[in-house]
Write a structure and sequence with these properties.
The protein has 2 domains: about 100 residues, Phosphorylase Kinase, domain 1; about 190 residues, Alpha-Beta Complex (Aminoglycoside 3'-phosphotransferase, Chain: A, domain 2). It is about 40% helix and about 15% strand. A 5-stranded antiparallel sheet has the order 1-2-3-5-4, with no helix packed on it. Helix 3 runs antiparallel to helix 4, helix 4 packs parallel to helix 9 and helix 7 runs antiparallel to helix 10. The radius of gyration is 21 Å and the shape is globular.
Length: about 350
C-alpha cells in the first residue's frame, strides 16, 4: 500500500484504531510521520449491493471540495497515479493524514461550543449543496445517487405494525427463550421493561405516524454526524471524519438526529439549553426554517420510538458491542414522548 505513496516514507508500525462500531482503520507510523489507513468495508457483506468503489471515490472528491471551502475535513492523500483508492485483492483502502484530536460529547461542550457545532453542521450542508451540484463540479449527481439500506432514516416512516412484531420476537428472547448457556441478566431485565413500555407507547401514539415519504426538503448530508466522527483539539473541531454514509436525505433530520446523540444525558434526557443553542446556530447557517425543523423533530421522534437496533444486534445478531448505549437510548424515547412540546420548542424557537 505505502509503495503507492513514496512521499510518506518507510513503514515503522501499524496499529488498529478501536474507536467506532463498524469501521476498520489503522494508525500507520512511518519515517515521515503518522497516517490513518482506512479499510473501506465491502458493503455487500453488510447487505448493500451498491457500487461501493464508485461511491467511495465520490466521497473522496466531496471531502476534497469541502476542504477548499474551509470545512474541517481530512481528504485522502493522492497516490503517484493520481488516485485516492487502492484495491488490493478484493479490499479497498485509502490513506489519510493522521489528525490528533479528541472526541467530545455534549456534556463536554459549553453552550458557546454547542452553537459552534450547529454552525459547523450548517456549513457541511450548505457546502455539500455547493460542491455536489453540477455547478459545484459534482458531476451532476442528484437525489438517489447514493443507495442507502431501506431502514436508513429519511427513507419512509416506520410502520408500528412491524415494530410490534419485532417487540414480540425480542421479548421472547429477553424473557428466557434462549440456549441454556446464556442465562438471563440485568440487561435482559431492562430490555423486557423497555420493550413492554415501548409497545404501550406505540399503541398510544400510533395515530401520530408522520407522512411517508418525507417532504421535499432534502439535500446532501454527511449521513453519520455524531461524536465519534468529529475530532476536537482544545475547544475547536478540527476534523469531520467517516463520510461512508454521504447521501441525499432530509437535511434537518440529520441536525435533529445529531443533537439526539450529542446532547443525550445518561438518564435519557436531552440538555435542552444546549440543543436550543445548537439548533439556532444550525438554522442560521443552513438557512433552515422553524417549520422544517419541527417536521424533522416529529419524524426523528417517531423513528426513535420504533427503533430497537441495539436489541436487534444483541438478540438477533449476537453482537453486544452496542449494549452500553441501551440505557440512555431506550430512556430517551420515553422522555422525548413525554416532553415532546419542550423538545420541539428547543429546536424551533
Amino acid at each position: 500500500m505505502l509503495r503507492r505513496y513514496p512521499e510518506v516514507g518507510e513503514p515503522l508500525a501499524c496499529e488498529p484504531v478501536t474507536k467506532g462500531l463498524l469501521n476498520h482503520g489503522y494508525r500507520v507510523s512511518t519515517t515521515r510521520g503518522s497516517y490513518f489507513l482506512k479499510h473501506h468495508l465491502d458493503k455487500r457483506h453488510l447487505g448493500d449491493t451498491s457500487g461501493e468503489r464508485a461511491t467511495i471515490v465520490r466521497q473522496h472528491r466531496a471531502t476534497q471540495r469541502l476542504q477548499s471551502l474551509g470545512v474541517p475535513v481530512v481528504p485522502p492523500l493522492t497516490d503517484r497515479e493520481g488516485g485516492t483508492l487502492t484495491v488490493i485483492g478484493d479490499r479497498s483502502y485509502a490513506l489519510h493524514p493522521w489528525i490528533d484530536g479528541l472526541h467530545r460529547i455534549g456534556a463536554q461542550l459549553t453552550c458557546v461550543q454547542s452553537r459552534r457545532l450547529g454552525t459547523l453542521l450548517g456549513a457541511v450542508h450548505t457546502g455539500l449543496e455547493q460542491v455536489m451540484s453540477p455547478r459545484g463540479g459534482g458531476g451532476g449527481e442528484q437525489h438517489g445517487a447514493t443507495a442507502q439500506p431501506p431502514s436508513r432514516p429519511g427513507y419512509g416512516s416506520p410502520d408500528a405494525a412491524d415494530t410490534f412484531a419485532l417487540i414480540d420476537e425480542l421479548l421472547a428472547v429477553a424473557r428466557g427463550e434462549r440456549p441454556r448457556d446464556t442465562p438471563r441478566d440485568a440487561f435482559d431485565e431492562l430490555a423486557v421493561h423497555r420493550l413492554v413500555e415501548r409497545r404501550a407507547l406505540l399503541e398510544q401514539h400510533a395515530h401520530r405516524r408522520p407522512p411517508t415519504p418525507a417532504g421535499p426538503a432534502t439535500g446532501w448530508v454527511h449521513g453519520d454526524f455524531h461524536p465519534l466522527n468529529l475530532l476536537y483539539r482544545g475547544g475547536d473541531p478540527v476534523a469531520i471524519v467517516d463520510w461512508d454514509r454521504l447521501g441525499v436525505q432530509p437535511r434537518a433530520e440529520e441536525a435533529v438526529r445529531a443533537a439526539a446523540i450529542f446532547f443525550v444525558q445518561p438518564a435519557g434526557e436531552l440538555d435542552l439549553a444546549k440543543v436550543r443553542a445548537y439548533a439556532r446556530a444550525y438554522r442560521r447557517a443552513a438557512g433552515v426554517g422553524a417549520a422544517e425543523l419541527a417536521a424533522a423533530v416529529h419524524r426523528v421522534w417517531w423513528e426513535r420510538l420504533n427503533d430497537l437496533w441495539i436489541l436487534h444486534w444483541r438478540y438477533r445478531l449476537h453482537d453486544r458491542r452496542a449494549d452500553p448505549q441501551f440505557p440512555a437510548v431506550s430512556a430517551l424515547a420515553v422522555w422525548w414522548t413525554r416532553e415532546y412540546a419542550a423538545v420541539c420548542a428547543a429546536f424551533t424557537e
